[in-house]
Write a structure and sequence with these properties.
Elements: H1 2-9, H2 12-28, H3 44-49, H4 56-60, H5 66-88, E1 96-99, H6 103-118, E2 125-131, H7 140-160, E3 164-168, H8 177-204
Parallel strand pairs: 1-2, 2-3
Length: 205
């Protein structure tokens, strides 16, 4: 049993299971109106979200008797299934990719979106992050960077085929409440402006 436990605890899946179990505990809590699960789009996260989950062997080794084992496995699977169903429900969960407008991040995020779709989870929209404001592009270097970003912004819109909003590049990291508020204002102001432009275009057409 000790050898089996050691092997199980050293498995990469064990860390993912523990992380997901912690996430489930937050999701089941009534202490929060909204939960933000901020994570890298590939690797461990996508494997964690693959369906269906196979928890039997993972949970079974954590208890001493067969009777306890079956009870724990059953309870754990029911908990996880409830959260998985919630994640697949667009009325309860929103999946967003935050992407730098550059070649590799766009390709990586697009592949991740397809993987999520196979698991029954749709992506609702994309945030293009650290986009240069045209007003600050006053020399050749930044003008070229802006043109490159515009190219990949177009690619993001065509590849993902979901709403895209812009997070402008700020002069400092987003740390502290004031910077978070400023970033939120910039993000939502752009989203609102884009929505109004789309409505105007639709009305004209």
């Amino acid at each position: 049993m000790l050898i089996a436990m050691r092997e199980e605890l050293e498995s990469p899946c064990t860390e993912e299971m523990a992380a997901f179990d912690k996430f489930v505990s937050y999701a089941e809590s009534d202490d929060y109106d909204v939960i933000v699960f901020d994570t890298a789009p590939t690797g461990h996260t996508l494997r964690l979200l693959e369906l269906p989950f196979d928890y039997d062997q993972q949970v079974g080794l954590m208890v001493a008797t067969n009777e306890q084992s079956e009870a724990v496995k059953s309870d754990t699977k029911k908990r996880f299934e409830r959260i998985i169903a919630r994640m697949k429900d667009p009325q309860q969960s929103v999946f967003i990719f935050v992407v730098y407008p550059e070649s590799t991040p766009v390709v990586e995020a697009y592949r991740a979106m397809l993987d999520l779709k196979e698991a029954g989870i749709d992506t609702q929209f994309v945030v293009a992050n650290q986009v240069l404001h045209p007003g600050y592009c006053t020399n050749d270097f930044f003008i070229r960077r802006r043109k490159m970003q515009e190219k990949y912004l177009g690619e993001i819109r065509s590849r993902f085929n979901v709403p895209v909003t812009i997070m402008p590049l700020l002069e400092t990291e987003i740390r502290g409440l004031e910077m978070v508020k400023r970033a939120a204002d910039d993000l939502f102001d752009f989203a609102k402006t884009t929505e109004e432009r789309s409505a105007q275009s639709y009305t004209k057409n």
